[in-house]
Amino acid sequence: MAKPAAGWIPLFKKRFVLFVVVILSVSTVFVCFIRGASAPCDPPRNGLAAAVDRAKLPRHSDVDVGARKNPLGFMRTKLVLLVSHELSLSGGPLLLMELAFLLRIVGSRVVWITYPKSEETNEVTYSLEHKMLNRGVQVISAKGQEVIDTALKADLVILNTAVAGKWLDAVLKERVPQVLPKILWWIHEMRGHYFKLEYVKHLPFVAGAMIDSHTTAEYWKNRTRDRLKIQMPETYVVHLGNSKELMEVAEDSVARRVLREHIRESLGVRSGDLLFAIINSVSRGKGQDLFLHSFHESLKLIQEQKLQVPSMHAVIVGSDMNAQTKFETELRDFVLKRGIQDRVHFVNKTLAVAPYLAAIDVLVQNSQARGECFGRITIEAMSFKLPVLGTSAGGTTEIVVNGSTGLLHPVGKEGVILLAKNMVKLATHVERRLTMGKKGYERVKERFMEHHMAERIALVLKEVLNKSAAHSHS
Alpha-carbon distance 72 to 284, whole Å? Predict the structure, then answer.
């Protein structure tokens, strides 16, 4: 990467404070990136990496706009207990952490528990717990008298994901009926194995359920009624929103350029190359295998039709060779057998999605089966003016406007060829790609900002608190 001009070095350093906020904020996955399968996890400790190390993450109090202006201001001094089924870098726990920080901004007392919690302390759990502690979130054991007393005193209890329901009977036991009227159940899952009565038998009796998309809400309503013979409580749909920090980076042309150059250099691709990326933890449900099949088909189409396009690359962010999963091995074997290893780049799980969004040209959201419940990475990509090629399933259909902000394709094998053709369309029509990106950005600004999410959540929390108060009085 070329050396930056001296005139903007102070600005460069200042803006890296902003980058660190995004890099450490709630987004997708783990903490380091690799070039291919063999590069070391830790990047060089100079240049960009050193600048990031020197920058300091601002505390929430530094960016607090004041409880009076915040739609969640009425939560000041409220005691909120957050119950997560795990503390990891997956979507559910990270979203709950984000809500914890939003509540801390306005002065809520926030307590976090993880149930069941692994007996082994790992680096991820340790890091996330300390991130919460540093921002004033109290982390306590999910068992014992302290958490029972907290649940009874809390103004609001939020269960995150269906699996968290196991905590009720296991810990609260005979106290469950006292806590149910003040529970808001935040559900993100769409897979069938979450529909177990042992998880959600208390669901009809809580104050409300909050779900990220209308598609998922309808699915839960039908599935609980038909399979489990229970009724959903009053259900609120709350679309998610992008953080202010991420939007500031997305709207900063200097930041985007620096990040783009750095990531492309680390991947070994040129500035004019065209990058299609899928950013999700590597698993069959996220469709990385079908994405690679589509990418390979797109290269064949370009060759057969003798099209003049920039050199195309596929980037998979969310890899984890340490897990040594059969699925990831299959992905890498496919790449080698097709001879496209110089065009496919595997990147380790990372919380730092902003640099990759700045570096790529098109996001592919290829989640299979019922699709994503919402798909936070989709709106994050749109904030960087990226077109989205997504499956026509789940919450993606509520985000991406087909033909306007992106192109949709079916799930499963029948979507492979259409996705390949859509890749070729965007590769051969630069103006269409840029126009879709701009329209996606405009859609994010209209619907999917942090303040939109805060306003929607505030309405839900007010109603749940009112229900709880009415129940206690009666």
Answer: 38
Backbone angles phi, psi at 449, to 5 degrees: -100, 165
b/e per residue 138-166 (b: at least 16 CB within 10 A): ebeebeeeebbebbeebbbbbbbbbbbbb
Secondary structure (3-state) at 382: helix
Distance CA 232, CA 224 (A): 7
pLDDT tens digits, one per residue of 170-198? 999 999 999 999 999 999 887 766 778 99
Which residue is listed with tokens 């779900």?
Answer: 211
How distant, in Å, are the alpha carbons of 89, 142, 262, 401 from that of 27?
Answer: 8, 25, 20, 22
Give me the DSSP letters along 315-350: EEEEE-GGG--HHHHHHHHHHHHTT-TTTEEEEE-B
Query: Which domains occur in the chain, in start order?
Result: 60-241+451-467 (3.40.50.2000), 246-447 (3.40.50.2000)
Q: Where are the beta strands (DSSP E) in 202-292?
A: 208-211, 235-237, 274-279
pTM of the model: 0.83
Q: Give 384's DSSP letter.
A: T
Q: Which helix (H) or strand (E) holds 220?
A: helix 214-223
Report the C-alpha gap between 376 and 399 in whole angstroms. 10
Per-residue buried b or exposed e for 6-43, using 16+ beta carbons within 10 Å of the residue's own CB: eeeeeebeebbbbbbbbbbbbbbbbbebbbbeeeeeeb
Strand order in the sheet with 344-348: 344-348, 312-319, 274-279, 362-365, 388-391, 406-409
Reported as a single tens digit per residue, the pLDDT across 251-291 is 999 999 999 999 999 999 999 999 999 999 899 999 999 99
CA distances from 341 to 35, 292, 304 (A): 12, 11, 20
Residues 6+ apart with CB under 8 A from 26: 94, 95, 97, 98, 243, 351
